[in-house]
Amino acid sequence: MAILKIARMGHPVLIRRAETVADPTAPEIRRLAADMMETMEDAPGVGLAAPQVHESLRLFVFRVPDGRREQDPEDTPLGNSVLINPEVELLTEERVLRWEGCLSIPGLRAAVPRAPRIRYAGFDLDGNRVERIVGGFHAGVVQHEYDHLDGILYPMRMSDFRLFGFTEELTRAAGAA
Ligand code: NI
Q1: Would you state the pLDDT for residue 92?
Q2: Which residues are annotated as catalytic?
Q3: Distance of CA 48 from the midpoint of ligand 1 (Å)
């Protein structure tokens, strides 16, 4: 296992559409996913997409920690997971603002409009198809990571740039309020 170098915003790999994974069960895909999980835990983060580690492939790793879940019965906890060649379907017209950060945009956070409920599908490392309907934090993480596979970074989704700032300043401001 290895901790991989994370591409930061401005690197071309982050704004290109990633390639379909030809064989989700290939040993090099398993190795990449294991290294991505280690890199995500080390950061620490809750999600990491292959383009963020300079691999233009349609896969990401993520987790839904219990403490980060919202009060939504469909916001289910999940340990470290891999999703290969994913599809995402937004189940509502409604969008809610959710605070997000990104390991490729260190030190910053923003409120980003996201669908509160989604259906997603994809493959795991054994080639099994995974399909889930989720809400809350879980839905937000998957939308953020999926966007990376299409070369979309969260600032490209923002609707209110006043809700964008350095984590340190936002935390200080919230504490003072
Ligand atoms: Ni990100």
Answers
A1: 97
A2: 145
A3: 6
| Rounded distance between C-alpha atoms, residue 39 and residue 46, angstroms | 11
Which single residue is written with the structure tokens 């839904």? 64
> What is the DSSP secondary structure assignment for residue 153, as one 8-state letter?
-
Q: How far does the centroid of ligand 1 lie from the alpha carbon of residue 57, in Å?
A: 15
CA 90–ligand 1 middle distance (angstroms):
19
Q: How far is CA 2 from each of CA 19, 36, 89, 120, rounded to the nearest angstrom?
A: 23, 8, 33, 29
Residues with CB under 5 A from ligand 1 (ion): 102
For residue 164, the model assigns a pLDDT of: 97
Give the separation between CA 127 and CA 29, rounded to whole angstroms. 11
- Closest by CA position to 86, among listed 20, 3, 5: 20
Q: What parts of the chain have a pLDDT lower than 70? A: 177
Q: Which two tokens stand for residue 97?
A: 């603002």
Q: What local confidence, expressed as pLDDT, does residue 60 receive?
A: 98
Three-state DSSP state, 171 = helix
